Amino acid sequence: MTTSGIGKSRLRASWQFILLTASLLLSPLAGKSQQDAEGCKDHALFTRINNFYIASCVENYNELPLRLAANKTETKEGNLISIEYDFNSDAGEKMKSPLQIIKNYENAVVKNGGKLIYKNTNSSEADIEATFSLSTREKEYWVRLSNFAGNGIEVEGFTLSVLEMEAMKQEVDASEMFETITQKGSVALYINFETAKSEIRTDSKPIIDQIAAMLKQNPDLNVSIEGHTDNVGTEKSNQALSESRAKSVVDALIVQGINKNRLKAKGWGQSKPIADNTTEEGKAKNRRVEIVKL
Q1: Could you give the maximum distance between any two Cα atoms of the chain, in Å?
Q2: Rounded to an integer, what distance in angstroms lies between the CA atom of residue 260 and that of residue 222?
Q3: Single residue among 117, 149, 166 that ends a domain in this structure
């Protein structure tokens, strides 16, 4: 993606939106008389809002400030794609309100497995903002919608900024795992499960394979498979989820030939965090499975 001209000069309103989504089905793209800036196109995850065209765009490795709470902003870095959209006044259509744009994205984000982090829709109190996050197997996405032009009721233009970060990955080796367990008594693993479920995703099969290999190489080692969650949801639901995920790992190891008498499953829910649950990075670290020596 290349950078075009800044587009028409205009006075920007003092409110922002922060959003994120994947595989979105928003309003269909209408035919437009205004042409997109040369070299610019919609982000692959988004279908643009009806009757807007691209005035400019830029892509580079950069930082993006994101509001996570009313008084908290966190800056993340990664591949940043910014697209400036302007309303096509030649279309003869009515402009959308800020709330319409927020809700359009919000519904799509939640539908596609993303979640709302923060939202403020009252411009008289503070900047209108909304923060969403969404993770796929390959990437973590954050999006900020900002630089809105208009009168607070009708949107004439905005800038969409999409931050792409590599998803948390972990490569484990059976011998290294055994060494850690021998020295520390346990090892924390980041096994990916289907959202809010105990089904192990296929991209985490190599980790299961290495746990099984370690146990086969060390037949006297007995372990407890212990599940942990972040604090999203209720204590009761997180406790049940951690227990079912620990059992899923045990079942997967039994399938690979590990004697069930060498394995125990236990869930701790959200009761034993190892990182700050107020940040997304902290939550990701807390969603773990620990292999504990018995």
Answers
A1: 76
A2: 10
A3: 166
| DSSP class per residue in 147-179 | EEEESSSSEEEEEEEEEEEEPP-----HHHHHH
pLDDT for residue 30: 41
What domain count does the chain have? Answer: 2
Q: 205: which 2 tokens?
A: 């099969």
Give me 106's structure tokens: 């919000």
Burial class (CB in 10 A: 0-12, 13-18, 19+), 127: middle
Nearest 10 degrees: Cα torsion 283, 68, 149, 1: -30
Could you give the CA distance from residue 102 to residue 113 in angstroms, rounded to a whole number? 17
48, 138: one domain = yes
Residue-wise pLDDT tens digits, 228-245? 999 988 999 999 999 999
Question: Do residues 80 and 109 share a domain?
Answer: yes
* 136, 211: one domain: no
What's the distance, Cα to Cα, between the start and end of the chain in Å?
A: 54
Contact 58, 82 (CB under 8 A): yes
Give me the CATH number covering residue 189: 3.30.1330.60
- pTM of the complete model beyond 0.70: no
Which stretches within the chain are classed as H helix?
Answer: 98-111, 174-184, 205-217, 235-255, 280-286
What Cα–Cα distance (Å) separates residue 171 from each residue in 5, 136, 243, 274, 284? 43, 18, 24, 20, 16
User: Residue 167 — pLDDT band, cuts 50, 70, 90?
Assistant: low
Structure-token pair, residue 233: 């949801």
Residue carrying the six token digits 């995920």: 245
Choose among 169, 98, 100, 160: nearest CA to 132.
160
